[in-house]
Amino acid sequence: MKELVEVIAKALVDRPEMVKVRETESERSIVLELTVAPEDMGKVIGKNGRIARAIRTVVKSSSAKLDKKVIVEIL
């Protein structure tokens, strides 16, 4: 999951070297914290949050086989 979010985010931003994804796994969930450069924040969130929602949808569908809830947080 971490790699998936990282690849998507790096494709969207102007400064891919600043993209960082931290994965925290618990018993029932996986939390992915995405951090990008401040000037790239709008590109990752998108107008009305559409890109952020799309990223979450892709991650959710790719994690369907896991028995855990996957949460993507954009910091």
Rg value: 12 Å
**Low-pLDDT residue intervals, each spanning 5 or more residues:** none
The secondary-structure element order is HEEHHE
**Number of discrete domains:** 1
Give me the number of helical elements.
3
CATH architecture name = 2-Layer Sandwich
CATH topology group: GMP Synthetase, Chain A, domain 3
- Structural class, from helix and strand content? alpha+beta
Write down how many β-strands occur, each being a DSSP E stretch of 2 or more residues: 3
Largest sheet: 3 strands, mixed
CATH class: Alpha Beta
Terminal-residue CA separation = 17 Å
Report on the structure:
With 75 residues, the chain is of the alpha+beta class. The chain has a single domain (2-74), classed as GMP Synthetase, Chain A, domain 3 (2-Layer Sandwich), CATH 3.30.300.20. Helix content is 39%, strand content 25%. The chain has helices at residues 2-12, 41-45, 50-62, and strands at residues 20-25, 29-35, 69-74. The protein has a three-stranded mixed β-sheet, covered by helices on one side. The longest helix is centred in the C-terminal third of the chain and has 13 residues, at 50-62. The mean pLDDT is 93.
